[in-house]
Amino acid sequence: xxxxxxxxxxxxxxxxxxxxxxxxxxxxxxxxxxxxxxxxxxxxxxxxxxxxxxxxxxxxxxxxxxxxxxxxxxxxxxxxxxxxxxxxxxxxxxxxxxxxxxxxxxxxxxxxxxxxxxxxxxxxxxxxxxxxxxxxxxxxxxxxxxxxxxxxxxxxxxxxxxxxxxxxxxxxxxxxxxxxxxxxxxxxxxxxxxxxxxxxxxxxxxxxxxxxxxxxxx
Length: 218
Fold this sequence. Notes:
Elements: H1 14-39, H2 45-55, H3 63-99, H4 105-118, H5 120-125, H6 137-142, H7 147-173, H8 176-179, H9 183-217
Helix pairs in contact: 1-2, 1-3, 2-7, 3-7
C-alpha cells in the first residue's frame, strides 16, 4: 500500500493525511464530501475524486461505490440548492450565498445566464464546468424546472463528471510504482497550490470590492 493510502508507513504530509482520511471515510464518506462540494464550491472535487480513484486500487474504496455515492452526493447537494432557489427566488438566493463569501457573484450570474440560454441541457453540461457546476441549480429551482427532469439531468451530468475523475485516478493507480517515489514532491506542490489559490481568491475579492466602491462613487 502506498504512502498516503492509509497504510502503516507512518510518514506525514498532506497527501498522506488525505489518503488516510479518504480510506477511513469509505465510499459513503467520499459521497458526503462531494455533497459538501456541491453546496460549498471551494471544496474541490477535482482533487478529491481522482485521489479517491487512485486509492481504490487498494484499501477500503471501490470504483463502483465511489461512482454511485459521489453521484448521489452531487444530486442531493444540487437538490438543496434547487430548493433554495425555488424558496427564495434567484435574486434573494444569490444575495444569501454571496454574503457567505464562499461563492462569487460573477459565478452566480454566469450560472443563471447559462441556464437561461440552454435550459435542461445546461443542467447536464453545466455539471462539467467548474464555477457553474454547483450554481446551475439555483436558477433551475427559481424557474421551477420540473423536479424529475432536474434530478435526471443532474444525475447524468454529475455521473459523467465523477466517473471521469475517479477513472483518471484509478488509471494512475495502476502506475503506483512510478508515482509513489514522487509523493514528497506532490506534498510540496499541493501546499504551493493551496497558497496560490488563497492569494488569488483574496486578490479577486479586493478587486471586486474596489470596483463596487468606485461604481457607487460614480
